[in-house]
Amino acid sequence: MPEADIERICRQHSLPLTAQRRIVLQALSLRPTHPTVDDLWSDVRQAMPEISRTTVYRILETFAHLGVIRKVGHPDSAARYESRTSRHHHLLCLQCGRMEDLDDASLDTIRLPGLKTGFQIEDYSIQFRGLCSRCSAPAKPRLKRRKTAGRTKA
Ligand SMILES: [Zn+2]
Ligand SMILES: [Zn+2]
Fold it and tell me: Of 80, 76, 66, nearest to 125 (Cα)?
């Protein structure tokens, strides 16, 4: 996320642009893989070792609440965040937990159900669960390391 965008967002929402907020948003935009709080915490600690996990969590929650970033999650797993807030869908790997974005125009135009309960749908996101390319690939035969005893390269 460009510096100017972060400044504009904070100004719009009357939030002081602290170094912590800046670094957390930057770390999030550098990771398109829907990181968890812990992922981001380990990223930002490299530049700011004193930052606490709670601070990172609070910053993410503040921006998610404002709609600046999005919280995505799935059952049995830690919440994840993303800086992309426009409508898109997700592919979730059941094995490694990797979450990828999916853009598909046909999924953006589905007919919304008419609900009689008074619930008003504002947006939706579809999550497909399965195995990612890495997890579904057939296991490669492991190359055995041969001991080159006796041979010495000059
Ligand atoms: Zn996977
Ligand atoms: Zn996403």
Answer: 80
- In CATH terms, the fold of domain 86-135 is Dna Ligase; domain 1 (3.30.1490)
CB 60 within 8 A of CB 40: yes
Identify whether the C-beta of residue 60 lies closer than 8 Å to the C-beta of residue 37: yes
Question: Options 1.10.10.10, 1.10.1740.10, 3.30.565.10, 1.10.3720.10; which CATH number does 1-84 get?
Answer: 1.10.10.10
Query: Can you give the pTM of this predicted structure?
Result: 0.76
Question: Where along the chain do the CATH 1.10.10.10 domains lie?
Answer: 1-84
Residues with CB under 5 A from ligand 1 (ion): 93, 95-96, 98, 132, 135
Residue 144, pLDDT above cutoff 70: no
- Which ligand has the shortest distance to the CA of 92? 1
Centre of ligand 2 to C-alpha 145, Å, is 40
- pLDDT at residue 54 in the model: 97
